[in-house]
Amino acid sequence: MKFDLHVKKNNKEKEEFYEDMLPTRDIALDLLRKLRVSFNVKRHSLKVAEKALEIANKIKKVKINKKLVEIGALLHDIGRAKTHGFKHALIGGKILRERGFPKSLARICETHILGGLDKEDAKEVGLPERDYIPQTIEEKIVCLADKMTAGTREVSIRKRFENWFRKYGRSKLLLKSKKRVEKIKKEIEDLM
């Protein structure tokens, strides 16, 4: 499945045209199935989508692309079809780009890990050295909803990071990420 309509437009016009072409919920779920994303990851993604839409619906001060939030949340862990390490975010973005989906959707995959990663963090975890920090409100909503969803359970940011600190230690990376997620949460709450 590839969104390629062979429309005669320049590159900028094509990019803007395709940005509006998000898959439906059914197409997103079908893609997870076709790529054999595990049952647990699919259940998690459904819960993240539910939480992300709950957050998006509370925001009143800015316009939110709720379809992008929903589909981005459903597909944020699509890279877990190949790996469960940090690279799943990058692989997820690549999977979506290769299928012709909008870059806004791929960016949600690439920026949801932890609270986003800066160049230093990316290098530390073995990703190409660039920023993977959520920038758009939709990227931030999905990132936050993911951090507030452990498996299929809703958890506080404090609890989520306490679990990671117990499992991985109070690393500089996790401490930075916790601050980023708390900042994203505050920014979103200020828009409600």
Write a concise synopsis of the structure shown.
By secondary structure, the protein is mainly alpha-helical. Helix content is 61%, strand content 2%.
How would you describe what is shown here?
Helix 6 (103-111) runs parallel beside helix 8 (137-147) and helix 8 crosses helix 10 (172-189). The protein has one domain (11-189): Hypothetical protein af1432 (Orthogonal Bundle). It has ten helices and two strands; from the N terminus they run ααααααααββαα. The chain has 192 residues and is mainly alpha-helical. The longest helix is centred in the N-terminal third of the chain and has 20 residues, at 39-58. A two-stranded antiparallel sheet has the order 1-2. The protein is globular, with a radius of gyration of 16 Å.
Measured distance between first and last alpha carbons: 37 Å
Could you give the count of β-strands? 2
Query: Which descriptor suits the 3D outline?
Result: globular
What would you call the structural class? mainly alpha
The helix/strand order is HHHHHHHHEEHH
Q: What's the helix count?
A: 10
Q: What are the key terms here?
A:
192 residues, mainly alpha, Hypothetical protein af1432, two-stranded antiparallel sheet, globular
Describe the protein's topology.
Elements: H1 11-19, H2 25-34, H3 39-58, H4 66-75, H5 87-98, H6 103-111, H7 119-124, H8 137-147, E1 149-150, E2 153-154, H9 157-168, H10 172-189
Antiparallel strand pairs: 1-2
Helix pairs in contact: 2-4, 3-4, 3-8, 4-6, 4-8, 5-6, 6-8, 8-10, 9-10
